[in-house]
Each structure stands twice: as structure tokens, then as C-alpha cells.
Automatic annotation (TrEMBL):
Listed name of the protein: Carbohydrate-binding module family 52 protein
Superkingdom in the source lineage: Eukaryota
Record's signal peptide: 1-25
Alphabetical keyword list: Signal
Amino acid sequence: MLFKPLPLLPLLLALAAAAPSPATAGRECQPGQYRCDYISSNIEVCDVHGWHTAASCKGQTCRYNGGSEAPYCHDQ
């Protein structure tokens, strides 16, 4: 008897779709938020699908404006 993986394929695809992606796992966000990434080289934006790169800085220059907490690239 041969193993038939095709009946399991929809189940595996559903499980993979339900798992959070490594890029957003444990990083909750509200759509419209911006922040510096973990290594301060990109500005990330949150949408309904999670965090995504909105802008890339030259090196590790992502900083926050005082008071507004809006990130920017402090490239000189």
C-alpha cells in the first residue's frame, strides 16, 4: 500500500497559514504604527498583515523624534 499525502495537503496548508510568520511572531501592532526595526536600520510600518519595511536607512541610523515617537533615518 502506497502512502497518499494528497489528503493531508489541505490540512498542512491550513496549519502553515494559521501560524504567525517569523517576522511578526510576538510583535503585536496596530495598523498605522511605525517603528525602528531591531537593528535600527529600517523603519517598519504595521498593517493588517503585521510589520513590513517602509524605509531603509543607511546603516543603523533609525531614531525617534522626541515627543512624537515618530521614527526617522538620521543619515548624515
